[in-house]
Amino acid sequence: MSTQDEVATERSRTVDSAMVPRQFVVTASRRDTRDTRTLELRALGDEPLAFGSGQFTMLSAFGAGEVPISISGDPTRPEVLQHTIRDVGGATRALVAASPGTMLGVRGPFGHGWQVADGRGSDIVFVAGGIGLAPLRPAILEVCADRASYGRVSLLYGARTPEDILFGPDLRVWARDHDIDVEETVDTGPHAWRGRVGLVTQLVARVAFDAAHTLALVCGPEVMMRYAAQALIHCGVTADRIRLSMERNMKCGVGLCGHCQLRELFLCVDGPVLSYDRLEPLMTRAEL
Amino acid sequence: MSSDAVGDETPRVTHTGGMAGKSDGQGPADRIIDVPGLQALVDRLIARGYTVIGPTVQSGAIVNAAITSVEELPQGWGDDQDAGHYRLRRRDDEALFGYASGAQSAKPVFFPTEEVLWRGRRTQEGFTVEPDDSAGRDAPYALLGVRSCDLSAIGIHDVVLTGRVHGDVAYAARRAAAFVVAVTCSDPGGTCFCVSMGTGPRPEQGRGAPYDLSLTELLNGGPHRFVVEVASERGADVLDEIGAGPAPAEDVVAGDAVAEEADARMGRHVDTDGLKELLYAAADSPVWDDVATRCLACGNCTAVCPTCFCTSVEDVTDLTGDLAGRTRVWDSCFDADYSWIHGGTVRATTKARYRQWMTHKLGSWIDQFGMSGCVGCGRCVTWCPAAIDITAEAAALRAAAEPDERDAGTLP
């Protein structure tokens, strides 16, 4: 290496690239629903991936492309990286197909998470739609681990059908052992379904919380999040105490590729979790 | 590579703030070189190990290319530029930098259209990850003839790509090694509006990216020559090596006059007063519907824009699937795939994509980076096949907004 190389290399070292993945190996793969699986991954070299609830990684199967996926595991157990992935395209299909022993590429963790600890001393309302329960799971586990610090806690969860309900065993444990009011609803159910049918946003009015002292964490399709936020505001929760996890196309995770922009926001860096007072003017305009 | 490039890692510039004219006695004294002197400068930079990139005439346009001789420069060529219009024209003099702006800025030099991030091989255990650090081994570039607008664009890219928590390592390596010879714009074109954006027409230390030397071309009152502003120690060293003497006082004054005359000949104008707020409030303006009837969403504007930085990432494999590479490629907010998430494209309409591009360029960029994303080079206007003019659209938005007091209301 010539001296000029060393100079340029030294200079470029001051710029930190986040574009090269770490290698992780799948240690377990669990089928959640017909199109969704949860992978457990361990870092090659075992250096854990410490993360905050609500953060995501850029996950890739070799040669098949890379996608942003929220971490669905327990933030107090960083040695196990969990991702819950729905098969919706080429890259996610390759990830869902990854069997134990498969190596995957991981970059991150990235983004601004739920910061659920801000809700200590107040009531917590989780609102999840579909696969949106996965990014909320770390925050729910965080609350369960420190349950006494929070007031009333409810989880409102809407899925398309009973077969699409994620984390069934978790839902029962959270309700039974952690005093969480878990309310489920589905868009459509078979005759045998004895639970609720309807929109998850309609459940907001059915659970008890002290609106003046509540932190609401919402994740799901954008239209569902908007209606959930409006329902929460209608019940008296202020927009700055309602947090949403936004989804956009992302190619880098660090604000360089531009894809995730929502006007002045880079959702990968400024988000994905943002409060509704910031998002409301940006979400109520079509195609912004 | 010659060893005297050692220590040339970055221009050592004292930021002296905006210097209105160059004959104000600040900084090291200006030098003077003639055309053979410019050749000596090129030779010296090559001897120092640089690949010199300068303007040439190719395919009927001014195109940056590697040069070794001043004879490759566009001597006697000017250009006519208007919305959707670009033609070279013969000048009635022998100016080497007598055109307004080339088809491309310095963007592709430091930030190429494609860049390998890493390569990998499938193995028994999974795959290997081999980061591509070849950018640090490129011959360092010396840019010759960088316009003030493009200098500001490089300054913007320095902030966007290297001034945040994570950056573009290959860009940083190329930038750190580069030598920059700027040039005063003497004949701005019909689509230029650098004066509106506060980026030109004359390079100024402390505005935009640092540079080493800045040339102002003089054709009258003596032989064809260049007043040279010295903006770095290594710039002074190179001039010492080629024996460039001090500039006569009357040449320095003549150089100032070149910049002043260019200043008064901008082809376009943008009123930047409150432009970000105007754009934010105009998200539902009918002006977007109007521009969408003309815009082809081709992305030419984003390709020629010296500040557009959006990229995509592609994984490519060989036929066996055993070798893979991940490449970062230029992308455009005008593409449908750009905003695609499972279930659909967020910005499905051309109206939404044009609004995104222009609102970002002139508005939200300010919130993100503390500066406008537009340097007024006019390329997006010139190279738009539908002759859409960002300055005219900005004026139309302002005109449409004024009657209803820029209502910032949102959709129900």
Question: What does this 3D model show about the protein?
Answer:
Chain A is an alpha/beta fold and 288 residues long. Chain A has 2 domains: 22-110, Elongation Factor Tu (Ef-tu), domain 3 (Beta Barrel), CATH 2.40.30; 116-283, Rossmann fold, CATH 3.40.50. Chain A has helices spanning 3-13, 90-96, 133-145, 168-177, 222-234, 276-283, and strands at residues 22-33, 36-43, 56-61, 65-70, 81-86, 103-110, 123-129, 153-159, 180-186, 196-197, 214-219, 242-245, 261-262, 265-266, 273-275. In chain A, strands 10-9-8-7-11-12-15 form a 7-stranded mixed β-sheet, with helices on both faces. Chain A starts with a helix and ends in a 5-residue tail after the last helix. Chain B contains 13 helices and 16 strands. In chain B, strand 6 (114-121) and strand 7 form a beta hairpin. In chain B, helix 9 packs across helix 11. The longest helix of chain B is centred in the last third of the chain and has 20 residues, at 350-369. The N and C termini of chain B lie far apart (64 Å). The model of chain B is unreliable at 1-21 (pLDDT under 50). Classes of the chains: A alpha/beta (288), B alpha+beta (412). At the A-B interface, helix 1 of A face strand 6, helix 3, helix 4, strand 13 and strand 14 of B.
